[in-house]
Amino acid sequence: MRRRIRRLSSQILLAQVAILTASLVIGFVLFAQTARSNLDADYQARAAGIAQTFAGIPEIRTCMTSPGPDCAETVQSLASQTAARTGADYVVVIDRDRVRHSHPDPSLIGQKVSEPLVAADGRVHLGVDSGATGVNANARVPLFGEGTTVVGEVSVGIRESSVSSELLAELPTYAAWFVLVLAVGALASFALASLLKRRTFGLELDEIARLLQEREATLHGIREGVIAIDPAGRITVVNDEARRLLHLPDGAGGRFLDEVLAATPIRDTLTGTTVITDAIAITDDYVLVINRMPVTIGGREHGAVVTLQDRTELTALTRQLDGERSFAESIRAQQHEFSNRMHALSGLLELGRPDEALQYLNEIRGTTADLDNTLRTHIGAPMIIGLLLGKAAEANERGIDLVIAPDTDLGEAPDRVQALTTILGNLIDNAFDALTGAPAPRRTVVSIVESPQSLTVRVSDNGPGVQSTEVPRIFTNGYTTKQGSAVRHSGLGLSLVQSTVAKLGGTVTVSEGPGAAFTVVLPRTGAQSGEVTR
Q1: Angle, nearest 10°, between helix axes 417-434 and 382-398?
Q2: Residue whose C-alpha is closest to residue 321's, from 403, 368, 383, 389
Q3: What is the mean pLDDT of residues 425-449?
Q4: Which backbone phi and psi does 159 adopt, to 5 degrees?
Q5: Highest mean pLDDT among 78-82, 345-349, 501-505
Q6: DSSP strand pairing (401-404 vs 443-450)
Q7: N or C end of the chain: which has fewer CB within 10 A?
Q8: Alpha carbons within 13 A on the beta-carbon side of 98
């Protein structure tokens, strides 16, 4: 029994039935009192009608104006007959001297009444009389003689027990209607309780409270951003991590997404209607992995749930690892090339051709040392040298000439070396990809110039270039024109370059084809612009 009462639907039903019962009982009592008052007024009006009719009998008026020897008997007889016919408890005739001329108790005839003659003012008076015969609905009307002269009054009373009997006879009918209303209200309450139970998925109050506590603890305890969006685009749930990653203001919950988030590709991703799995999005501060799952319950759309993972640090480490991997690839390629050259020298010496072997050594020393000498002469930063050596080895394997421009000048500890590695590596990768399938000779030229005011990076190639109509889109996350095996970075590289440059307050300049040239200028001091021009 306790278990049933604890159920949410049972509590609601019992509460509503109790409220309905109390309201109907109070209403029934008030209705009974009103009905009693109405019956009292009806019986008083009935008594007034009887009294006025009796006062209009000529014999009564004559006897009260000019009393005769038979008047006493006549008045008493007519009063008794009228009371018997109408059901009145009494009909009493009183003269101007307050003397009774008729009464149900003959012993009181000829005696004076204790109260004054109230109908002497010529008007009808209604009320409740507690006289010798008990409590009655009473009416007192004036008794007129010749003309408008008041010669007495007629008092008629109807016993209150008659009023009570009529009320008790009517109350069962009214009570039946009230019970019917109560039954209808109880059924409506039961229907409402069942509806609420379905809306709350059969959960009880303590279970709902526990789920809310667990949800809040889970949302604000995980390191992933979570946003729930309803079909209208309104944020219904957002945790602290999502606010941090998207720079949402406090109180974002309950507001429309386009009110709290600027018009960016990431907002388009959040407000879409399709399933999104592990999509990469880049903001000014973070690299995010986005998953979006539409929610459908009972065949109806209820919006979507979006999760956000911060991959900024992981992406930075990946780029650093790419530099190390490029350096390792450079060492591997050089080792492989060195082994081949040693085999060639060994063969020449075994054939007894030392002059040709010496000439071959001189050629090797000149071509191999050329790039190393150029890098060490123009670049002092070891991380950048390692990156370019790795890219040179990759270029050699892909049949591309990687050329370091003569104006390159970079110190040992340049500003923002990590950002420079990201920008330079992605631009070179983009140039290599652009040259895939292009006719020989294929060439990529890299220029890095450091000045007191800025750091300028320029990467150009002799590929097909960038069409003027594509310039506004090339930095969009996921945009790429490459297909098949040429797709190596899924359109993320240039987007990462643009976001890094914008965050550092630099500019990106893109030339039109044929041949593409990307120029990045990172200010060492001064205002930040983050522009993309062509």
Answers
A1: 10
A2: 383
A3: 88
A4: -60, 135
A5: 78-82
A6: parallel
A7: N
A8: 7
Tokens, residue 201: 């998925």
As given in the structure block, the two tokens for residue 279 are: 């999509």
Asked if residue 369 lies in contact with residue 381, where contact means CB atoms within 8 angstroms, the answer is: no
Instruction: Pull the structure tokens for residue 459.
Output: 């990467």
Please state, as a whole number, how many other Cβ atoms lie within 10 Å of the Cβ of residue 194: 13
Which residues, other chains included, contact 193 with Cβ-Cβ below 8 Å and sequence gap of 6+? 8, 9, 10, 12, 13, 16
Peptide bond connecting 439 to the previous residue in cis, omega within 30 degrees of 0? no
How would you classify the pairing of strands 287-297 and 443-450?
A: unpaired
Residue 489 has pLDDT above 50, yes or no: no
Report in angstroms the alpha-carbon separations of 462 from 113, 404, 432, 469, 480.
134, 15, 10, 19, 18
Beta strands at 90-95 and 225-229: parallel, antiparallel or unpaired: unpaired
Angle subtended at Cα 212 by Cα 208 and Cα 218, rounded to the nearest 5 degrees: 140
Distance CA 102, CA 92 (A): 5
Stated as kind and residue range, the H or E segment containing 391 is helix 382-398
pTM for the full model?
0.45
pLDDT value at 191 more than 70: yes
The pairs formed by 118-121 with CB atoms below 8 angstroms and a separation of 24 or more are: 118/153, 119/143, 119/150, 119/153, 119/154, 120/96, 120/150, 120/153
3-class secondary-structure state, position 279: strand
C-alpha–C-alpha distance, residues 512 and 464, integer Å? 9
- State which H helix or E strand residue 211 sits in: helix 205-221
pLDDT reported for residue 446: 92
pLDDT of residue 267: 78
DSSP structural state of residue 223? S
Region 265-292: mean pLDDT is 79
In 351-490, DSSP assigns E strands to 401-404, 443-450, 454-461
3-state helix, strand, coil split of the chain in percent (to 5) is: 50, 20, 25
Structure tokens at 298: 């009972």
Q: What's the rounded mean pLDDT across residues 85-114?
A: 86
Percent of the chain residues topping a pLDDT of 90: 3
Coil, helix or strand for 496?
helix
Separation of alpha carbons 273 and 266, rounded Å = 14
Whole-angstrom Cα distance, residue 393 to residue 328? 10
How many of the other CB atoms lie within 10 Å of CB of 78?
Answer: 18
| Backbone angle region of 256, left / alpha / beta, with phi > 0 → left and psi within -120 to 50 → alpha | beta
Alpha-carbon gap, residue 482 to 69, rounded angstroms: 138
Asked if 182 and 21 count as a contact pair (C-beta separation under 8 A), the reply is yes
Is residue 531 very low, low, confident or very high in pLDDT (cuts 50, 70, 90)? Answer: very low
Both tokens of 10, joined, read: 């049972």
291-305: b (≥16 Cβ within 10 Å) or e:
ebebeeeeeeeebbb
**Strand residue runs (E) in 324-415:** 401-404
pLDDT tens digits, 117-158: 888 888 888 887 776 666 778 888 998 887 778 888 998 888
Q: How many CB atoms lie within 10 A of CB 100?
A: 19
